[in-house]
């Protein structure tokens, strides 16, 4: 069982580092709930982002045989080695998650990964996008995130809360909010509520987009200025947005947040065809 992170930090003469976005989970029952929400099974290969002092790693090791525990803060590596001593199957690694080659990690593990992490809020978007760019490298992701960010990520296309990121995520994953975690569950407590988000990767893209790069371009254009109508927003990526919208059978006055995943996919395919013409 993991010790209280505050005690661990004091024992090692360490403190939280704001520039790393460190908010250590101190609520005793939450780590096991996170592991259960992510649905990892004994034979899964698990990759944990931001192992910290090993709080979530311990809960994972109670159920999982193979875990890579990644930590960027080098001063915490000896702490992890001490706290996780005797936990067979846990590989502690120093590194930056933004440098991770997810495809290579999955190949080394012999199959897709299950990814967990208490993510630093300022890197959440980059981390999620990194996984979405390598969709076949993972099967599920379970993240502790800022609640507002998690809610936006889980919003389906066509919902008022959708964003460029959620439109990207919906193509490859079904995202659901598992439960909320209050500020008092962390040290130091953040100023916002957090939430556990589970991303279940689809076996194939939800819709045919023609070319992933085209889909990304469409989504970026539509949500860069979300109050703009599609006929204006799409000028950023094509010379004739009206023809593009007609080919995709999308209303020119619609806004990005109103478009369904099928409509976004149709716009992407139409953009591919228009660029080839």
Write a structural description.
The chain has 277 residues and is of the alpha/beta class. It folds into 2 domains: 5-201, Vaccinia Virus protein VP39 (Rossmann fold, 3-Layer(aba) Sandwich), CATH 3.40.50; 212-276, rRNA adenine dimethylase, C-terminal domain (Helicase, Ruva Protein, domain 3, Orthogonal Bundle), CATH 1.10.8. It is 38% helix and 19% strand. The protein has 12 helices and 9 strands. Helix 9 (212-224) packs across helix 12. It is elongated and about 65 Å long.
> Low-confidence stretches at least 5 residues in length (pLDDT < 50)?
none
Count of helix runs: 12
Order of helices and strands: HEHEHEHEHEHEHHEEEHHHH
The biggest sheet amounts to: 7 strands, mixed
Please name the fourth-level CATH homologous superfamily of the largest domain. Vaccinia Virus protein VP39
In the sheet with the most strands, the strands line up as 4-3-2-5-6-9-7
Distance between the termini: 62 Å
Short recap of the structure:
By secondary structure, the chain is α/β, with parallel strands linked by helices.
SSE map:
Blueprint: H1 5-11, E1 24-25, H2 30-38, E2 45-49, H3 55-61, E3 66-71, H4 77-83, E4 90-94, H5 102-109, E5 113-118, H6 124-132, E6 138-146, H7 147-154, H8 164-172, E7 173-181, E8 186-187, E9 194-201, H9 212-224, H10 230-233, H11 241-248, H12 261-276
Parallel strand pairs: 2-3, 2-5, 3-4, 5-6
Antiparallel strand pairs: 1-8, 6-9, 7-9
Key words describing this protein structure:
277 residues, Rossmann fold, 2 domains, 7-stranded mixed β-sheet, two-stranded antiparallel ribbon, 12 helices, elongated
């Amino acid at each position: 069982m993991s010790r209280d992170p505050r005690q661990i930090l004091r024992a090692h003469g360490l403190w939280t580092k704001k520039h790393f976005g460190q908010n250590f989970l101190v609520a005793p029952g939450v780590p096991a709930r996170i592991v259960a929400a992510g649905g990892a099974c004994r034979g899964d290969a698990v990759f944990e982002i931001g192992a910290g002092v090993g709080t979530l790693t311990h809960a994972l090791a109670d159920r999982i045989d193979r875990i890579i525990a990644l930590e960027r803060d080098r001063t915490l590596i000896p702490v992890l080695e001490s706290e996780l001593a005797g936990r067979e199957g846990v590989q502690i690694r120093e590194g930056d998650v933004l440098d991770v080659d997810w495809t290579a990690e999955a190949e080394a593990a012999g199959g897709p990964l299950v990814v967990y992490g208490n993510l630093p809020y300022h890197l959440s978007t980059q981390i999620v996008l990194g996984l979405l760019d390598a969709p076949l490298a993972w099967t599920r992701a379970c993240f502790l995130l800022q609640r507002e960010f998690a809610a936006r990520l889980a919003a389906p296309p066509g919902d008022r809360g959708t964003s460029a990121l959620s439109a990207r995520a919906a193509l490859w994953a079904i995202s659901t909010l598992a439960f909320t975690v209050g500020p008092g569950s962390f040290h130091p407590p953040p100023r916002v509520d957090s939430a556990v988000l589970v991303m279940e990767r689809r076996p194939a893209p939800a819709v045919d987009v023609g070319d992933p790069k085209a889909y990304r371009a469409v989504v970026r254009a539509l949500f860069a200025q979300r109050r703009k109508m599609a006929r204006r927003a799409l000028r950023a990526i094509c010379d004739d947005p009206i023809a593009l919208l007609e080919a995709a059978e999308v209303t020119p006055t619609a806004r990005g947040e109103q478009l369904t995943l099928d409509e976004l996919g149709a716009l992407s395919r139409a953009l591919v065809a228009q660029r080839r013409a």
